[in-house]
Specification:
CATH superfamily of the largest domain: Ribonuclease H-like superfamily/Ribonuclease H
Distance between the termini: 125 Å
Mean pLDDT: 80
CATH class of the largest domain: Alpha Beta
CATH topology of the largest domain: Nucleotidyltransferase, domain 5
Radius of gyration: 42 Å
Number of strands: 5
Shape: rod-shaped
Structural class: alpha/beta
Helix content: 40-55%
Number of domains: 3
Order of helices and strands: HHHHHHHHHEEEHEHEHHH
């Protein structure tokens, strides 16, 4: 019996035979059908998996020689050496990115090649060929988004912490500050923070008051009350311990009696039994109203110690300065007063809200009046204990 004649097969035929054997799972039957030896089949398969430069090539075999010729068209001319043969599977070399290799592999799968053979040839994970990027959906709870936006419209100067506090205390909504921050950031409702500047350290930079009615601060600011009136002048008195406004006065002029009216209102409101034994200190700047002889004599009769800040140092009167800024941002600059009475009514309404409804971070997110009641309860218990 003579030897069977040699059959030269093209690269496409070899590729199809290997693919058929892998797909069917019966290598012996595939080799018998095509008339080849099993070891030749496994040789073709190993060359495809190794990604050699001449993988499944159509070259002729020479004695003791090596195969030479073009590589399989599905793999590419230089893909074998650059993609699989010369690289670490965990770290690609030759400037070939994972994205380019996976794109080529997916195209081969679409053309009809099996994912197992393509993954083995390009030395990539087979599961990566089935990956499809899905659009990322938001899992955020949108239940209270509209309520958050409504509060931001009502309280234009509130940051996300105060908005969260307002929704919890006034609306009874179970929202935290992170959700409020996310909604306000998405809608562009965040309040712009002011840039911190370098400051020189001076005396009385921070006032420490251990209990109410120990240190007060007072200052004067001007407010536009309409074209018919012009500028009006507001004098306010704040308690440094509870941040509560204890007295204020709005008038056409900035005279000494206007400043005294605010101080006397504060004394009658907070110290109805008298101020001589209270050891109260009033801090003001060096304005002419607060340094006049009449103002100093009145404070002396009331038993109030007067302390003035350093020149060009508003930080020494920081609490009342910050209150006037909040008043202007949240009330004065958002309203257009047409007269003194309208300005006085608007400011009175806002000060009432400030004392009883507005949270203050300086007193642990309580309202100033709640802080005063808490201190009053502690002082009362200490008196009963003694």
């Amino acid at each position: 019996m003579g030897r069977k004649p040699r059959v030269d097969r093209s690269p496409e035929e070899k590729w199809q035979i290997v693919q058929e054997g892998i797909k069917s799972g019966n290598v012996s039957e595939t080799c018998r059908r095509h008339g080849i030896a099993p070891n030749l089949f496994y040789r073709w398969k190993d060359e495809a998996e190794q990604g050699a430069k001449a993988a499944l090539g159509g070259e002729k075999r020479c004695r003791g020689g090596n195969r030479e010729g073009p590589s399989h068209p599905a793999v590419g001319t230089n893909a074998g050496a650059e993609v699989a043969g010369d690289r670490n599977p965990k770290k690609r070399r030759g400037g070939v990115s994972c994205g380019a290799v996976h794109s080529q592999a997916r195209e081969m799968v679409v053309q009809g090649y099996t994912a197992t053979l393509v993954a083995a040839t390009l030395v990539i994970s087979r599961s990566s060929l089935y990956y499809r990027k899905r659009p990322r959906g938001s899992r955020a709870d949108r239940t209270y988004d509209e309520q958050i936006v409504m509060v931001c419209g009502e309280k234009l100067a509130y940051g996300y912490r105060r908005v969260a506090w307002w929704l919890q205390r006034k609306k009874g909504l179970p929202v935290n500050r992170k959700r409020v921050l996310r909604v306000m950031r998405e809608r562009g409702l965040l309040v712009r923070s002011r840039r911190l500047r370098a400051r020189r350290k001076k005396e009385w930079g921070r006032v420490e008051a251990a209990e109410p009615n120990q240190i007060w601060q007072s200052d004067m600011t001007k407010i536009w009350a309409g074209p018919a009136v012009g500028w009006a002048y507001l004098v306010s008195v704040i308690d440094c311990c509870t941040r509560e406004i204890v007295g204020w006065n709005l008038s056409h002029r900035c005279r000494t009696e206007d400043a005294l009216a605010a101080v006397e209102q504060a004394v009658l409101e907070r110290l109805p039994e008298g101020s001589r034994e209270s050891n109260l200190t009033l801090t003001t700047d060096n304005g002419t109203q607060f340094t006049s002889s009449r103002f100093l004599e009145t404070l002396g009769r009331l038993g109030i110690t007067h302390r003035r800040t350093a020149y060009h140092h508003p930080e020494g009167n920081s609490y009342i300065e910050r209150f006037h800024r909040s008043l202007k941002e949240e009330e004065v600059w958002t309203a257009e007063y047409r007269g003194l009475e309208e300005a006085r009514a608007g400011i009175a309404r806002w000060i009432e809200e400030y004392n009883h409804d507005r949270p203050h971070r300086g007193v642990q997110n309580r309202t100033p009046h709640e802080a005063f009641l808490a201190f009053a309860g502690v002082l009362k218990n200490e008196a009963l204990t003694v």
